[in-house]
Design goal:
Layout lengths: L7 E5 L3 H13 L3 E5 L2 H11 L3 E5 L7 H10 L8 E5 L4 H9 L4 E4 L4 H20 L4 E4 L2 E4 L4 E4 L2 E3 L3 H12 L5 E2 H9 L9 H15 L5 E6 L3 E6 L4
Parallel strand pairs: 1-2, 1-3, 3-4, 4-5
Antiparallel strand pairs: 6-7, 7-8, 8-9, 10-12, 11-12
Helix pairs in contact: 2-3, 4-8, 6-8
């Protein structure tokens, strides 16, 4: 019988006691863990070892977590790896900065281990959902979304999205012309109670809009339905 591969978690933190604590608990939960202490080591490990998920500390010397995340998401080989930022910074603006920098999720120190494991499972589940959706192709205006290639393009030019952004856009494409509630997005993509999410979804949608605008996407617009959620429209069908 073929052995099932353990999911691989890359732990990035410059504080040894946190790395050791996470390492022990990851292994207890059945994950394989890779531990590094700097941003440069994180980039090298991500490129060579292809982890399934990355736990990334924000406050590190030389290269902080925000810069590491930006580089990971700019590299075609690592952009689809979900990144959960782990930080002592708990202000809303810090969380938004992390999400704007490309993080898929953000958790503050000190954190509850059970919550961390739930977030890891939710992120890995999104990877599994996309892998099962291979071969599905959507097109709205000049924008296409291809689940097999994990790729979004506008007039043939690639738009680089994080895993979470891709999942949100995928869900909007699946329901094109209909309103998708914030609650539905949160429960499907993050597997969390909407009351716990704050502005997280709004930040991710803002990022998607900016990337569509930067790519000069035509006839594809995401509308905010005030108090309810979002709807993607094909403006060429007017």
């Amino acid at each position: 019988m073929e052995e099932i591969r353990k999911r691989r978690v890359l732990i990035v933190d410059d504080e040894d006691h946190i790395v050791q604590m996470l390492d022990i608990n990851m292994r207890t939960q059945g994950y394989e863990s890779i531990c590094v202490n700097s941003g440069e080591q994180a980039l090298d490990a991500a490129a060579k070892l292809h982890p399934d998920i990355i736990l990334l500390d924000v406050m590190m010397p030389e290269m902080d977590g925000l810069e590491v995340c930006r580089r990971l998401k700019a590299d075609p080989e690592t952009r689809s790896i979900p990144v959960i930022m782990v930080s002592a910074k708990s202000e809303e603006r810090d969380k938004i900065a992390g999400l704007m920098g490309g993080a898929d999720d953000y958790i503050t120190k000190p954190f509850n281990l059970q919550e961390l494991f739930l977030r890891i499972k939710a992120a890995l589940r999104q990877v599994d959902i996309l892998s099962r959706a291979q071969g599905v192709h959507y097109e709205i205006g000049s924008v296409t979304l291809d689940t097999q290639k994990y790729q979004v393009t506008a007039s043939g030019d690639r738009i680089d999205l994080t895993l979470t952004e891709f999942r949100i856009l995928h869900m909007l494409f699946q329901n094109a012309g209909s309103v998708v509630s914030r609650e539905a997005l949160i429960r499907e993509v993050f597997e969390k109670d909407p009351a716990e999410m704050g502005r997280t979804v709004d930040v991710h949608v803002r990022n998607i809009r900016k990337k569509l605008d930067s790519a000069q996407a035509k006839a594809c617009r995401i509308d905010t339905i005030r108090g309810i959620g979002y709807m993607i429209k094909d403006e060429s069908l007017r």
